[in-house]
Design goal:
single chain; alpha/beta; Rossmann fold; two-stranded antiparallel sheet; 15 strands; 26% helix; 24% strand
């Protein structure tokens, strides 16, 4: 099967094709053996030959490079993290402190082509802080190149990739990660989402200064709350200055708190002027008090063409958050009476999705295989409500009024 990411076709190895999945929907840098490529994103044709790099990812241009062993996806990022000390290979790093200013750049992420399932991110085995094996782009997600760009270069290079988009013509998404997520991990997740959605527009990431630690919940809560201005600045930059015609916002966990609070700062009279390109808004396991979410609902709905909320009763991180909030239910939780229901927002209970877990937290469901298909169709078609795009969703009408949708196993 050929697919397109960052504007170029390539052939997958041992990957389920979207055509097969569609049948379920019913209606619906190193050295290389080849020629040298520019290190400026978006200026060079894709390389088709094998690149043999046993321990380091290629430092290539901003287009997707197809090899026999791995693919490369370019992620454009904005962050308000403070710069750290350069890594061992002189790559810029960013730490869990708020710089109060926005930095921009791109990263080339390698994705192994074999022995990988949709939704997964393979990294070298670790015990605590001890890494037990070397990075290998044939086996692991790796960052082969990461550069800081000025605003003009950031716009120019991302637009160059956007101009070659076909499947998601002139579209982009902005991913806002959640709790317990370091800068590199956020880049890996953004690349994984783009690759598995077969998204050939531009994937953008906003990374706020999460501590990347299971014990850092309170730190992350404060860090998210103090990042609203920079997130809104980044969203407006992508909306106002790039050539993207449709922009989707995908937020996860505590990142939904950051996104929704930032959207509340957009005045109702200005929303259509300042964010006219926002299309689908996806809130995955939102770590927001239900009462606060109800207050934010109008601002969220006003910002986009459609809003989808994925909730689960199995999300252990949200249970931890609920305990920290003295039992107050989170918007991403599913209590016995059912998930939150708000007119104009599609809530989907995915408790029975049967997904794999990360760190035992059941907290990356939105990126797992069955829901990646739904995300693909949602972003591609904008179809609402959920049961009109996915037959695995069943509408549930609540006695008090309103409805939500539930994932039903086949």
């Amino acid at each position: 099967m050929s697919l397109v990411v960052n504007g170029h076709a390539r052939t997958r190895v041992r990957r389920p094709t979207l055509l097969l999945v569609a049948g379920l929907l019913v209606a619906l840098s190193g050295c290389s053996s080849g020629p040298e490529l520019s290190t400026t994103p978006g200026t060079q044709q894709v390389a088709r030959e094998r690149i043999d790099l046993p321990n380091r990812a290629t430092q290539r241009g901003g287009e997707s490079v197809a090899t026999e062993d791995f693919d490369i996806v370019t992620v454009f990022w904005g962050t308000n993290r403070r710069s750290g000390s350069p890594s061992a290979n002189s790559r810029p790093t960013f730490v869990a402190q708020n710089a109060k200013t926005l930095s921009l750049g791109f990263a080339h992420v390698t994705i192994p082509r074999v022995d990988r399932e949709r939704g997964s991110i393979q990294r070298p085995w670790r015990i605590a802080s001890v890494q037990l094996e070397r990075e290998d782009p044939k086996k692991h997600f790796t960052i082969g190149d990461l550069k800081v760009l000025d605003t003009s270069s950031f716009i120019t290079t991302s637009d160059a990739i956007l101009s070659r988009s076909k499947r998601f013509k002139d579209e982009a998404f902005i991913f806002i990660h959640g709790y317990n997520t370091g800068f590199d991990d956020a880049i890996y997740r953004t690349a994984q989402i783009a690759f598995d959605l077969e998204f050939d527009g531009v994937p953008y990431l906003f990374s706020w200064p999460s501590n990347g630690s299971l014990t850092g919940y309170l730190h992350d809560k404060d860090a998210a709350d103090s990042s609203r201005r920079q997130l809104l600045e980044f969203v407006r930059l992508v909306s106002d200055r790039t050539q993207a015609k449709r922009i989707h916002l995908i937020a996860h966990s505590m990142g939904t708190r950051l996104l929704t609070e930032a959207l509340r700062e957009v005045r109702p009279s200005d929303s259509t002027k300042s964010l006219p390109k926002i299309h689908q808004i996806v809130l995955a396991a939102p770590d927001i008090d239900v009462n606060v979410f109800e207050e934010l609902a109008d601002a969220i709905k006003r910002a986009g063409m459609g809003v989808t909320l994925y909730a689960s009763s199995n999300d252990k991180a949200l249970l931890t958050s609920k305990k920290a909030a003295l039992g107050r239910v989170r918007a991403g939780d599913v209590p016995p009476e059912g998930p939150i229901v708000i007119t104009g927002i599609d809530t989907i209970d995915i408790s029975d999705a049967g997904f794999e877990t990360l760190w035992g937290l059941n907290h990356t469901t939105f990126a797992e295989r069955s829901l990646l298909t739904d995300l693909h169709v949602l972003l591609k078609s904008g179809t609402h409500p959920p049961d009109k795009r996915m037959p695995i969703y069943k509408r549930v009408d609540r006695p008090a009024g309103g409805a939500y949708w539930r994932y039903v196993k086949n």
